[in-house]
Amino acid sequence: MTRAAASIGPSRRTSAVDPSPGTPAAQAVAMLMATHGARLHGLALRLCGHRADAEDMVQDAFLQAFRKWHTFRGQSSPGTWLFTIAARCCKARIRRKGGVDRRTPALSQLMPWQETSVMAAAIEPSRESSPAEEREAVRRVQSEVAQLPEHLRLPLVLKELTGMSVRDTGAALGLTPNTVKTRLLRARLALRKAMTAKAPAVIAPAPIYEKRVCIDLLMTKLRAMDRDRSGAATRIPKAEVCARCRSVFRELDLVQSACRQLDEGSLSPTLRGAIERAIAGARPSTNAATRRRRGRPPVR
Question: Which of these CATH numbers, 1.10.1740.10, 3.30.70.270, 1.20.1250.20, 3.40.50.720, describes 3-99+265-293?
Answer without folding.
Answer: 1.10.1740.10
